[in-house]
Structure formats: C-alpha cells, structure tokens
Amino acid sequence: MEPFYQVRTAEFTDNCQTTLHQQTGLMHATTTWQSGGNEATFSDYFLEGFQLTTLTGHLAQPLQLELAVEKPWLAMLYQLDGQIDSKACALSPLRFERGHQNMMADEAPVNFYTFQGRQHTSFSIHLTRNLFEQLVTSNEEWLGLHGQQLNRPKPFVMLPEGMAISPQQRTLIQQIINCPYSGSLKKMFLEARFLDLFIEQQTQLMQLRVRGTSRDREMLHAVRDFLDSNYAEPPSLLALARQFGTNDFKLKKGFRELFGTTVFGYIAERRLTVAHQLLSLTDQPVQEVAEVVGFANPAHFSTVFRRKFGLRPTQVRRAPQRLQAGALLSAIAA
C-alpha cells in the first residue's frame, strides 16, 4: 500500500501537516496545507492495488505542485470544482475542467500540476496496471476498448476533451468522501464504491464508443451511396474524405472493415457491374460502355471484365436476351 506519487514542491511540504490512520487492510492519510490565504486538504486512502484521493481547497492563487511518480499508474480523475492543468500528462499538456472526468496513464518520473479555483474539489483513483488488467480482462467489451493498452502499455489520455461526470458518479464519490464506517467494513465499502465507479466509467466510455461507431457507419454508408452514382469519375480519396468530414486514413480503414473491400476496389466492382448490365441490356458499343463506366483504355476494360465474369465484353454482347432502354433504367435503379 505504497503511494503512487510524492509532492516535491518545498513551498507545499514546508507548510503542511500529515496525519496517518492505520486501519485493517487500509491506511488513511490526511494532509492539510495553508499558505498566503490559500488552504487545501488532501485525503488519501491506500488499499491493495489502488489509491483514492480527494483534494478540497480554497485557492485564491493557483497552487503549483511538482509530483514525483513512485511507480507507473493509470488514473480515473473527476474534476468536481475548479480546474487542473498539467504541463505534460501522458506526454502532452492537458486541462481538467470543472464537471468533467477522464481516464489516463503515465510513466513519467516527474510531472507538474497547477490547481485553480476558489472552491476546488477533485477526486482521483490511481490504480496499478496489474489491477487494471485484472478488471478489464473480466469483461469482453472492455477488452475491445482497452486491448491496445493491454498489448502495448504506454501513456494515454482516453478522451482529450473529457466527458461529463454523471449524477450517479457524483453520488458514489460523495459516499466515499463521507464514508461512515471503520475497520474491515470501511475497507469493503471503499472497495465496492471503487468498483462501482470503475464500472460506471467503462459503461460511459462504451456508450461513447457505440455512438461514435454509429456515426461512422452512417458516414461510410453515405460514401458508398455517393460512389454508386459517381463511380465513373470519383474524386480522389483525400477529396472524398474531406467531402464527408473525415480523413483518408479513417475512410480507408472504416470502408474496408464495413464493406470488405477498399474504396477503389468498390469503385472497380461497381464499374464492372454496370458495364455488364449495359452490355446485356442495350446495344451500346463496347468501347462506349467502357468509357461510360470510367475506363479510358478499352483493352484494360476487356482484361478486367474477363477476369471478373469469365467472358469477354463482346461475348456478353452476343447474349440473346435484351431489354428495352426503359427496362434498363428500371433495372439499374433497382
């Protein structure tokens, strides 16, 4: 039950007092600090594999702290009042706004934080990677959410903009802060509330992921519908991505995952399908059909057509069954 970090800032350590309370299976540390009209209280519960920290304060001026990290950590942070700025949390500057939460991990030996707000309240849970892995591997959906972190642990911030703290999470945090029990019952109570908070946060993250996935799916179907009508002269991949509000990497990856082919593979397939319909149902010359569907080279068109259908375009043209132009339009539209 060792702490995850230690404060190094002399202005803080020289003006604070810490009281330790050892109980069955847990340790409680209360640190009070006063200086220049500012005051803050840190309440830390140390349990096996995780640490619960509540910071409350009246900060007329920003409180800047240098934290020395004792061991790699993952953390769930809930900014109830005020805000926190970090110079390089998980390798980049980060701000924790009032009413927002986040999940992150870092391995840097030292970090710098600035705490602000005349009424400041933040709550955090630091946990070991081992405990995080045990929890995540117990749920298949969480594995999909955090699989990359398990396979290749590295610093991360789950949501750069954070997400809102739910009423249920606020209630759970207040239950931890105001825990009425002592001894073994207190330990079990804090463990249970920690698990409740972990489950609630993972549920919210999964819901965000599903909503994002749904939006992506709608966008990709819109791209496919666009290509169904613009296969002959499609825009470049970059222009197509910009047209639908995404980037080319996300478009390429998502399109292949959803439709089982690349964007240009789909375009080629669409061109050949329409070409087969035109050759079967109209009297248009083969070269004209090739041009209409987007093939500038008739020889190349013949080659890929035969590879796809096992027949040359002229062999399809000699097929006995034809439809009138009106029927052709209905067939293609269907």
UniProtKB/TrEMBL annotation:
Statement: the UniProt record of this protein carries the keyword Metal-binding: no
Molecular function terms from GO: DNA-binding transcription factor activity; sequence-specific DNA binding
Superkingdom per UniProt: Bacteria
HTH araC/xylS-type domain segment(s): 221-319
UniProt keyword Transcription, yes or no: yes
UniProt KW keywords: DNA-binding, Transcription, Transcription regulation
PROSITE patterns documented for this protein: HTH_ARAC_FAMILY_2
Listed name of the protein: HTH araC/xylS-type domain-containing protein
Organism the protein comes from: Hymenobacter crusticola
